[in-house]
Amino acid sequence: MKNILSNSNQPEKRMKRILKKHSGRDSSGHVSVRHQGGRQKRYYRDIDFKRDKRNIEGVVQSIEYDPNRNANIALILYKDKEKKYIIHPQDLKIGDTVVAGDSVDIKNGNALPLKNIPIGIQIHNLELHPNQGGKIIRGAGSTAVVIAKEEKYSHIKLPSGETRRFHGDCYATIGMVGNIEHKDRILRKAGTSRHMGIRPTVRGTAQNPRSHPHGGGEGRVGEGMHPKTPWGKSARGTRTRSRNKWSNKLIIVSRHK
Q: Which intervals carry biased composition (Basic and acidic residues) (predicted)?
């Protein structure tokens, strides 16, 4: 994948800032997310998930690595001389043009509302609500497909297999997210995980009973008849989604079917 990346090692200075390290701790200093800490210093790149520069063409200046996501990012120079980063779509090359708007061409990297995207087109960086900015389908190699239209809604088949309604005014970007090879990456050594901020995970059965419900016992003892999470909740396949969740009515086909 390195051969398509720009030779520039430094991101745009005005679009980066130091990403503060919290090591999984909340405002009280307690560990709220386990197995985090010791990460290499990073800069956060400001990504344009909204694609709110409408009907202004931009040219791809470079394709860069982003340490905060598994997809690459593309630097876009617009005609009004403003620069922005977007998620890099597959097959988008340096020198290509992209544009966002209500009636732009169905072309890789362009962004437009779902109501104007034909059935069968692959999309990514999809908004959950209009004007909110892309929230889902942003990972390397991920894509969704428009499969139907219904009044003000579009039916989208998501990467998980779920089919769901989205409002037709929600913006999405045409194409598949690039860097598909990321899933084949081999870390090779423990130190790579530590540089990424991932600390070791210890099996519950290897801990003492005060640290985990599976802990304790003489010799090697399994999880027992009722596996639990570290906080005592049922594990191994128990459904936790609320029956009254607001978005249940938007789901046409569950990912579990």
A: 215-226
